[in-house]
Every structure is written in C-alpha cells, then in structure tokens.
Amino acid sequence: MEDAIVQQIKQQAVRLNTPEDMDVLIDAIGDKRYVLLGEATHGTSEFYKLRMELSRALIEKKGFSFIAVEGDWPSCYEINRYVKQDKAAKPSAHANLAAFHRWPSWMWANEEAAELITWLRQHNTDKPVDQRVGFYGLDVYSLWESLEEIERYLLETGTPEQLASARKAFECFDAYEKEGQNYGASAAFYGESCKDEVVKLLASLHAKRVRDHTDGEAALSAELNALVAVNAEDYYRTMVRHDADSWNIRDRHMVEALRRLAAFHGPDAKVIVWAHNTHIGDARATDMLADGMVNVGQLVREAHGEADVFAIGFGTYTGTVIAGSAWGAPMATMQVPPAQPGSWEELMHRAGAHDQILLLSKEDPVLGHEALGHRAIGVVYHPSYERGNYVPSLMARRYDAFVHVDESHALRPLAINNVLV
C-alpha cells in the first residue's frame, strides 16, 4: 500500500518553488468563505511564511476580511489596532509583538509574524475603516489579561453599576495569583467557582454592545474578553479532571469566537484561520474521534458545510524547530529528525525530496482510506521520543490539501533591545 500512496503523490503533487506555485491552492479554494491554515509545529519559519503568502493572495484576490489565529485575544487585539491604523496603537510591528510575553512567546513574537503584520498595515493604508483587514486571537488562556482589559474598557465607557458588577467577577479570581491551575484545582475539588460572575459579565457586555454602536470594535473586544473569561474558567476547572473535556472546551471557544467575529464583519465576511494542524484538520479523521474529542476543523465544517470550508495541513520531513523541553522552559532550536518510515511525511519525501503541494479528495481510493502516522510537534518537544508525536490520520478526510516542506528551519524569535522575547 505504501508504494501505491507514493505513486499517487508523485502523480498528483505540484512542486512548490515560488509563491506563484500556490495559485493551485487559491484556485481550489474558489469562493469558499472559511480557509483554515495549519502547521505541524509552532516553531517553523516556512509554515509562517507560506501561510502569509496564501493569506496575502486570499486578501488581495478574494477579499478576505480578517485573520484569526491561535493566540490570546488581548495581545492579538493590540496587533489588530496596529494593522488597522489606530492612532492609539504602538508605533511599530516589533513594539506590538512584544506584548506576547507569556510563554511560549515565540509563537507570535517572531520576525515572520512581524513581516505579516507589517504587510497587513500597509495593505490597510488609505482603505475605509470598515474595509481594513483585521487580526484577532481565538485562544482561551488569557483569563487575567482579559479581565484587566474589560476593567479598562468599562472605566472609559461603562456606568458605575456595570463597573461594580465587573469588579465583583474580578475579585472572585483575586485569590489565585493569576495561576489558572490554582483556580482550576480549587473550583474542581472545593467548589469555589467564579462561573456565575463571569457569565453575568458576558451577558452584560453583549447587551451593552447591542445597545451601543458608537465604537463597535472596542465593544466587541470587551465582549470577546468576557467570552474568554467564561470559557477559561470552564477550561481550568475541567483541565484538572479530564484532558479531553478541556480540549473540547478550548476548541469550542475558538469556534464561538470565530462565529462572533464573522457575525460582526457581516454576512459576506470571509475568514482565514491560522492554528496547529491538530486544531484545523478534521478530528473525525484521526484517533481523536475515539477519545470523544472535537476540534475547530470539524466544528467549522459542521457549522458551515464542507462546501464552504477549505483546510490546508502543513508538514515537514526534517529540519529544525523552536520549542521547549518542558512547559515554561527556555526556548531552544532543536533538530527535527527524519520522519518515521511509513509516516505521511516520509511517504511525501519518498515521492520527491522537495517542497510540494497536494490537493486531496476524501473519495480518493488510495489517500482517503489508509490511516497514516502524521507528525505533530507542540511547544514542548523531545526529539528523542519522536514515535509519540504521530497522529494516525486519514489524510484526504482530514484536509482538503497538504503542503509539504521537505527541509524546514526554526522561527526567528523577536529581539527587543537585544533580548529575545
């Protein structure tokens, strides 16, 4: 079967040498409104560069409305203000990216991301405010940062009653010293939950946004920060007990944030998502299904129909990557060993030791029905334990296309005042 897969790849793959070679993907995307761009690691330069080129083409040629990424809402909203020419934004791409100071900072505080947001800002120059392309975060980890942003917003625009209600929610979390795991253990085992307070806060801010249209995006930001607070509370409380449930809370949060962003941008909004392959590739085509896990790729396909969604996975055969040896450990450049024999990446390499693009169809009798190991590297990585980094995947059901980088290179972390952040 491996030989048949290799021959199929040889016949169907398009060699990737220049950005123009990705036009095959732009053509395949057609009029679809949701384009999901993956990555096999959070620390590979080529994944960021290729996604930038694809995003640029989608924005320029097909009028996509915004990019939503696997990142925290408050930090990404600073980027959004910068790329949309907000006068209150910090003056440079590097200054705004320095806001990503919580581990793993290199995911966005890197030179490749700086190139993306510099281009976005230039693209938005001289465009009407409602036509400027945005940049938003979908993740759930920024509980305390989001609460601080809500307080700042209500100090400027809220009534004393609204501010008092918000501070009641903030005070509930004060005892946990900005540590989600501390809160999660207390809520899970001792019943000391802040859920009621943050749910009320979200309802209040949503009602305020519906009622007040004077600064729609600032109100949207406050509402999304409250949504983070609601779902982060749930995430940390659940994480202590069950990893699969906490994963589902996180990905459902991303999809709900995406839904609210799309609704804000109107019925014709077109959306680009940047996230790890494990989020954007359909979970039903992997062993996540047996574990009761869902993800963004599955949920967006279910919500909008497969005909309106295009998911692109990215992978590499070998190279280098930025990662940590443990959660919170210093980042390091690590070697990515050659892919395991019989894995998807090794078969792509065997079909051609060069970068390539492969369009996929779930009806394909060869690529759609054989579960293959597909490498996934997280922010914590141990190259010596490679075998555990492979996700059994029905590739043509997981993605609509796959971009293979035969030899990849580590991201370039951002340096502020000669210090890596």
UniProtKB/TrEMBL annotation:
GO MF: methyltransferase activity
Matching Pfam families: Erythro_esteras
Taxonomic superkingdom: Bacteria
Transmembrane segments: none
Biological process, per Gene Ontology: methylation; response to antibiotic
Matching SUPFAM superfamilies: EreA/ChaN-like
UniProt-recorded name of the protein: Protein-L-isoaspartate O-methyltransferase
Organism: Paenibacillus ferrarius
Lineage: Bacteria, Bacillati, Bacillota, Bacilli, Bacillales
